[in-house]
Amino acid sequence: MTMIIKGAITKLMKGYPVDAQRYDVKGAILDGTKQLSNGQLVKYTNTTGYYQAVDTDQTISAADDIAGFKLAVNVQLLKVWPGNGQEVKTDVHEAFDLCVRGLIAVPVSFSYTNDNEGETTNRDAAFAKLQPNKKVYATTAGVITTDNTAIDIDARFLGIIENVVEEVGDSTTTVTCLAAINYRNA
User: Fold this and answer.
1) How far is Cα 112 from Cα 114, in angstroms, rounded to an integer?
2) Which of 32, 78, 123, 171 is disulfide-compatible with 83, CB 3.0–4.6 A?
3) Cis peptide before 82 (omega within 30 of 0)
4) pLDDT digit string (tens) for 136-154?
5) 83: pLDDT confidence band, cut at 50, 70 and 90?
6) CATH code for the domain defined by 23-101
7) What secondary structure does DSSP assign to 88-126, as a single string?
8) d(CA 158, CA 181)
9) What residue ranges do the domains of the chain occupy?
């Protein structure tokens, strides 16, 4: 297979492998009370083989809490057709593929202080954190970020980003995008 670079495959897709030969996966069952999205962080539970979605209710405090990412698969369909833009999610007690190591596309969110008119210093510095081999972090609620005050999750950016959305506020700009990462040194 080929890596998503320069037209080989033209688009990152959330939760999908970036290189079909460089990821390790294991079967898992979703525990807890919340659905799980593709590319979302997953944490360990006290029961072997059962995992929970990391979110504002089920937080993490260290990289050791993280089991991996929910890997997208081509065979999972929406429960109701047509979906009208709905996202495919894994329900509680359903089986899913857990990416425990590999190159995967995940949603990233970060912010920076707005620059003065005509300047791009803060913006450039913020986007520089997405360059190859820069560390990947996660908030306690599982949001993937470039903020080095968050939890280092043993991953590196590959320098491939897509679907960049910048929401400009009064003093800060919030950025969301899809980024390819190397999780646990695949």
Assistant:
1) 6
2) 78
3) yes
4) 999 999 999 999 999 999 9
5) low
6) 2.40.340
7) PEEPTT-EEEEEEEEEEEEEEEEEEEPPPTT--HHHHHH
8) 5
9) 23-101, 104-183
